[in-house]
């Protein structure tokens, strides 16, 4: 599959209300539930990008900066940041909005990797991503560094070959 | 509260994947689960319009035209169509998308009514709705006929006073 | 299928307790959960009437008159009100009971339509309904008006042909 | 509380459909889900008998004679069989019905004990039970033997004092 | 299958936190949810003992001695106590732990019976159990008395033949 | 809090069966559900280490190497690998076992960070971790590199100060 797609074409918006059944004993959104929502939003974005069934290959990072209170309106926005051979990095931004003013505050950021597969579970090539906005471009660039780091940590890349990442440490 | 708001300001998008735990024994999305998603999307739209806590006053209609298969990506788009004293009519459009082509097909339409309340459960006035697109205007007009019909059926309005609705039958 | 059945033969009773996981942030039964229960009770009644697999064709109306508090005992009573060619209208009455006195209060009424289908999803004819009590007869009559109205609103019936409904407006 | 109540006054009917999300990997109703439904039905019957908040004191027995297939209509019928000082034995009969013929088959029987409590969790006296039908009388009698057995097994009653039960072994 | 296995080889540990969605209206762990966890832990222990698919044959007893509060850490420990022809008795001990001291308190004990089956649902012979600790031996012995009692109550064994059980009443 | 604790004292074991309601449309364990289980096991381990209420601060990494099939027995083993001022890194190993042979295969590894808090949500100091086994020591050392990396990526540490991590790139 040689085609290319704009990053924004994969965008998935998922809005939720935090019901009592979604909370932890502190009365905030239970982390496990948020992770479930993130995985659904992320896999929809990946599926929209490649037009194939996808499976979760890794959760690369999820930050939990502020607790999300019961009854909050939570918006998850997932978008493919960069595609590699058969995998796609997806970034999911999580926002909470103030009901009265409508102002949104970002409270989580998740980075996940999905792989496109065929009926037998064999990975399939996916379209390249074309970033357009400043944010999309910055995330596109950072995705390569994250991938190199991930390959180093799993022993599949030698640190010396991680040129992008190495430049962080050696100027 | 005398302010007015554009219909589109209340828009809520909620995207889901139909997992096995969401299906009925025919392998399609279970109606009760779809209704749950509709109520969440609808109440978020109403809450965004009025900036208040809202409660569901009525489900006026939900059509189920085509079954939604397991593994489908389902998008719910909810928007306030018209506001009355303390109540808001919300229309929720439900789409299924073809994974390969990305083409969306509408498969359900739901109409619900929400009421804004204060801490004691007393209804509160809500902002008026300003429709902009052709669709928003058509739905804004139809909302009045639906309301008159609802008031007639519940015995709170005399058929003779339902001028909008009556014109359907007497030309 | 030419047989006829009494309306009461389809009756389905479903009793629930409102647990914390069923509530909204106001501490009352979450509307989406109630709708899920209504759809289960309604489809059982329809299935009992026709002895076939059924699918939800429409939710025609659900009223939410009083909030149902956490820990309430909720009883749903569903019964087929009238059958048409391949569809059945089901009315679901929802009651809450006072634990100490046992007195029941009606708090919701839902009207839904189900269609009997075969293995290929093709609609099948269903038995006629014989109403017996005064309430069953009143609901049987009203079901025709609701059906005419529904057909008019969806453009499948001309207002002039909706004789039952028209009589509401023209005496 | 010195009053007495008929066993049938506590009757609770709870009807369910076995959805895919309720099944085990064999495609039958998952035992844990059935137990959840049994506990809800049983506690409603106990609460109806005593007009108080109740807590589960023990599950005395649940038999699983035949597997319940996905898509089955399951009816649980719970009724208080006998009351002791502050506790009530409830029997829950579980039936599956043949969709075409409507014929019901009993597939589970559960026996549970509930205790009425006040706000501090202190047990409260409950009304006596008056059995009327043959089945109610047989269950009322057997409840005493079960209670004696339970007290023996937990070391709170000497076998010699369990006159009802002893007669099973010594004629 | 003639092999034997140590009781401890079947041990299954399942740890949970009581989230708000797991509670009853008193703010304690809902009995139905605990029963669901017990059935999962019990069937894993049985499956580990026999290396086969198992189905729940009976819940013989579950005691609820102390309520388990929201936010508690709950540990379920399930282990096969004795095997008969094709069935296994499993005992599940439920503990709550004090977060600060780490001290565990036993709050429930459940006894359940599972049967190993093949693809057609036919019961299969299971390995014998070898008890090692004092507790395992005591439970192994008691399992026989419980089985005899169960067979008597269901009419499949004459009281006179229940030698183990009879000795409780006649010295 | 100046005390120290062995890493193994925090160990939490959580065993699950993959039921149909836990699967994705490929018939494998749904990623979001696994993440929910991981967060529960991880937070229990952290809570056992510090004896305090904890909140999830970050999911640092979750790998999904092999799909987990429906009906699998899944064991999660969570243990604190290292503690910093107020935070704890927890590693959760996820295993699937072959029912017949009992042999376990590791299929996921998750790394998460939890923070101990008081009633006002203020972070509290936690005990140090004493690693004992080779694996515990290796994970203890790696935890520091991961923390430095995390601080660099979030801009809170200069690459030059990340001595542990830098040595990966510059020999």
Give a quick precis of the structure:
The structure is a homohexamer of 171-residue chains. The first copy, chain A, has 171 residues and is an alpha+beta fold.
Structure characterization notes:
- Six copies of one chain form a homohexamer.
- The first copy, chain A, has 171 residues and is α+β, with helices and mostly antiparallel strands.
- Chain A has one domain (4-131): Thiol Ester Dehydrase, Chain A (Roll).
- Helix content of chain A is 27%, strand content 35%.
- The first copy, chain A, is built from three helices and seven strands.
- Chain A has helices at residues 31-50, 134-153, 163-169; strands at 4-6, 12-17, 53-64, 73-83, 87-97, 104-117, 128-130.
- In chain A, strands 2-4-5-6-3 form a five-stranded antiparallel beta sheet. A two-stranded parallel ribbon of chain A has the order 1-7.
- Chain A is globular.
- The mean pLDDT of chain A is 91.
- Strand 3 of chain B pairs antiparallel with strand 3 (53-64) of chain C.
Question: Which key phrases capture this entry?
Answer:
27% helix, homohexamer, Thiol Ester Dehydrase, Chain A, 3 helices, alpha+beta, two-stranded parallel ribbon, 171 residues
């Amino acid at each position: 599959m040689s085609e290319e797609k704009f990053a924004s074409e994969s965008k998935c918006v998922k809005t939720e209300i935090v019901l009592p059944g979604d909370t932890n004993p502190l009365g905030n959104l239970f982390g496990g539930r948020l992770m479930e929502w993130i995985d659904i939003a992320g896999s929809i974005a990946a599926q929209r990008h490649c037009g194939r069934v996808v499976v979760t290959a890794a959760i690369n990072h999820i930050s939990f900066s502020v607790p999300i209170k019961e009854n909050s309106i939570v918006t998850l926005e997932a978008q493919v940041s960069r595609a590699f051979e058969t995998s796609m990095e997806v970034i999911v931004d999580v926002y909470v909005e103030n009901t009265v003013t409508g102002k949104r505050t970002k409270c989580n950021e998740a980075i996940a990797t999905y792989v496109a597969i065929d009926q037998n579970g064999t990975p399939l090539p996916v379209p390249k991503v074309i970033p357009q906005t400043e944010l999309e471009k910055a995330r596109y660039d950072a995705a390569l560094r994250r991938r190199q780091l991930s390959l180093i940590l799993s022993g599949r890349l030698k640190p010396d070959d991680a040129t992008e990442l190495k430049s962080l440490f050696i100027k």
